[in-house]
Amino acid sequence: MKKYLIAMIFVLGASLSQAQELKNYPLDTINGEEVYQYRVEKSIGLYRIGVNFNVSQQDIIRLNPQLRERGLHFDEILYIPTGRPVTMEPVKKEEPKTLPQAEQPTEPILTEKPNKIDEKPFVAAPVTISRPAVEEQTPVAEVAEPMPEIPAEVADSTVTEAEPEVLDSIMDGKRVIEYALLLPFESQQTKRSATAIRMMEFYQGALLALHDMQNDSTVFRLRVYDVERSDRRIKALCDSTELDRVHGVMGLVYPTQIEMMAKWCDLHQVPLLLPFSDNVSLSKHPQAMQFNSTDKQEADSLCRWISERGDSTIHCVAIEVREADIANPIRELRIAMKANGLPFVSLPMRDLMNDSAEYALDSSKENLIIVHSDRFQHARVLLPHLTRLQEAGYRLRLVSQYSWQKESIPMAQVYTSVFTSDMAREDYDFLWSRLYTNEHQGETPRYDLLGYDLMRALIEKEQGSNEYIGLQSIIRWQQKGEGGWQNIEVKVVEK
Questions:
Q1: Where is the domain boundary, 275, 290, 305?
Q2: Partners of residue 399 on adjacent β-strands
């Protein structure tokens, strides 16, 4: 009995010690879930971290998806679920600190491109915008130093603290207009993920858009914030006065952050352009502007393309990939096909993988193969089986994604896309090469061009234009009833 009591006291003491230790970690919220912020120590693995916090490795990876692509790194910050209900504490109403702004020249001064510095983005000359620096807004409204990877101007002018009323009204006889860019730059991480690199390119493209929009009467400024995945950083911004004078907000990736900022923008009547989301409730948020097409838009566009070709020559087969986000696309496609009187068959992925898909195909028509997934790896595993069906005499055409265009796909394709412009980009690429030392990743789509087009579209929308013809996209805004705005330019491309 005595040994049993000693053991119980030891276990209880260890539990209390662990609970006390966990209290020392900062708290945050990610998509409405309370988390600890844990900085990775030396010689520790994911398994040991999970044991220390009493969570599974899968839960840690779920909140830190960058671990899948690059593994664990010393000194990076991980989000660890607490398992407790969210208790969002009110933000202290302190005046947020602002990084000083550099005086700007009237015209951009182009200099020779300097040597590359560790392949990190770097602005080689001042441009007629505010100093691009990432301000990290924490729950107590403190601002961290800008991370070195973010471009910084190399102007010789003295950096001074500008008065707020000057920044938002007139500077050297010109009207000053400010916009805010909110993206997950991962400035606290020791190694950036692929997502953070894309956000950097998006940011650089937005800067070039502001550079091109300068004129004799207007100066544009950009307030840039690293919001990572933190709900509390968004709350801090909303509760502060940081965004009170901005003419528009752009960015955001994660749903809870989008919902919080959309409510703030509706209250203050500030446009909010969302580059990456495709499921915003526009009926609830009249200031929201959604660039990406919805599942319904893509389904309707595909149906129109089939009808124009003659529905008697097309047989549609949807391959059901086991993925959380495919139910709605398949449902929308079924509704659109039925409304247009078009044939449609659902094919479980396992039947194709088992080479028993002939029952779903039509040997007298072209079979339109629809894979409901944005991930090419899902399509890659299907290609050998589809190729065997082609060799057996079936005519197949794959409904692919715009982002797959650089992949080797041995069959005819068709895809829907919001990237509908093929404007000449030589001048843009030349300016990029003069101002930045890093090469853009050249992905499809290019994130720098996306940032450029959407920054200009946001400004032109505020100036009264609902249409913008860009370098990579043609954007046409249409209001959804009395709600927000949807880009309706979706094109079907054959390849």
A1: 290
A2: 370, 414
